[in-house]
Amino acid sequence: MLTDSEIKKKGLKVLIENLGNVDAEKFVRLLSKEPFDYTAWQDVLWENKSVKQVSDQAKKYRSKE
Question: Taking the complete model, does pTM exceed 0.70, yes or no?
């Protein structure tokens, strides 16, 4: 399991690689401005997926690394 610092570092790296420096910064600012309820988000994140579908998706993602 990654530490909080490692997650932040990897997350920022992914944002910069995909959005560029300016838009990555903008994205972070947008997130910090909006109220975000992580618990409510988790309630609907996998709403229409079975455990098998989530597991298969995780395996597929993992194999890309």
Answer: no
